[in-house]
Design brief:
five-stranded parallel beta sheet; 48% helix; alpha/beta; 17% strand
């Protein structure tokens, strides 16, 4: 399997912990970049850390979680080569991979339930990038 980097702030810690368990159960190596509890921390630090791990190749993909998923996805996307997609359902996660070659899944712990989060993760990990007409668009994201 592959190395998956994960990170969250305090508002995403519970869901991040569940994601780590799911990834390990599926045979992935988890690179946990924090946070490690419910004490208040700043989401940009953890979004950037996951973005850097993915963009550098230390991890094949990443998962970031905060209360809404918005702030931490913005932070991850500031790293060149990181393509974080905030997903609220499995279809969004599937399309983020098929059409956008997303390499980081962003989730909002306060906005989605545990089963929806698991569906998003499964779709994200098991859907390949289609390439073709989508490749030139993804190339423009990195230009």
């Amino acid at each position: 399997m592959s190395v998956i980097a994960i990170g969250s702030d305090h508002a995403g810690y519970v869901l991040k912990s569940a994601v780590a368990d799911w990834l390990k159960e599926a045979g992935h190596e988890v690179l946990d970049l924090g946070t490690n509890g419910g004490e208040s921390v700043d989401y940009p630090d953890f979004g950037r850390a996951v973005g850097e791990a993915v963009a550098s190749g230390r991890a094949e993909k990443g998962v970031v979680v905060c209360g809404s998923g918005i702030g931490i996805s913005i932070a991850a996307n500031r790293v060149k080569g990181a393509r974080a997609a905030l997903c609220m359902n499995g279809l969004m996660a599937r399309l983020s991979r098929q059409h956008n070659d997303a390499n980081i899944l962003a989730l909002g712990e306060r906005l989605i339930g545990i089963e929806t989060a698991r569906d998003c993760l499964n779709e994200f990990l098991n859907t390949p990038f289609e390439g073709g007409r989508h490749q030139r668009r993804v190339d423009k994201l990195s230009a």
